Amino acid sequence: MVAYRSKSSPIETLESFFQCFNAKDLESLDEIWDSPCVFIIGNKTSLFYKYRNAVDFEKMVAGGWRSSSVNHSEIIFEDLAIAMVQLNFSRFDHDSTEIGRYDVSHLMVNTESGWRIKILYMNNGEGMDGIS
Asked: What is the spatial distance between Cα 36 and Cα 46, in angstroms, rounded to a whole number?
């Protein structure tokens, strides 16, 4: 594996992810996530060629979602090739009321174009409408 010096950090990439996610910008989300990407939620593992195949914004909005925000993030491991980041985030409804709080881990890969999210891991996906 070739190691690259990225202009942004894994945390900055995740911050960009949340901005693009809240904007429902599928093109940018596909660039932030590596292809293919893997979701491990509970005991279910799913492979998606593009991130856009893993998210359904219409279903999320119908379930009350308006935005998401990171509460806390921590790099567990990082070298020039990969990083593991744990974070806690909240989902909010149209009144900015928190409708869910979640813990997730992301395995990230450093590519020629910068850090990309490769794998999402969650122990429990309850309340995560719109995420496969």
From this structure: 10
pTM, rounded to two decimals: 0.91
Question: Which tens digits make up the pLDDT trace of 81-110?
Answer: 999 999 999 999 999 999 999 999 999 999
Pull the structure tokens for residue 97: 């009321």
75 and 83 Cβ atoms separated by less than 8 Å: yes
What's the token pair of residue 115? 């850090």
* 6-52 per-position pLDDT tens digit: 678 999 999 999 999 999 999 999 999 999 999 999 999 999 999 99
Domain 12-23+33-122, architecture per CATH? Roll (3.10)
* Cis peptide bond prior to 10, omega within 30° of 0: no
Residue 13 CB burial class (10 angstroms; 0-12, 13-18, ≥19): buried
3-class SS of residue 83: strand
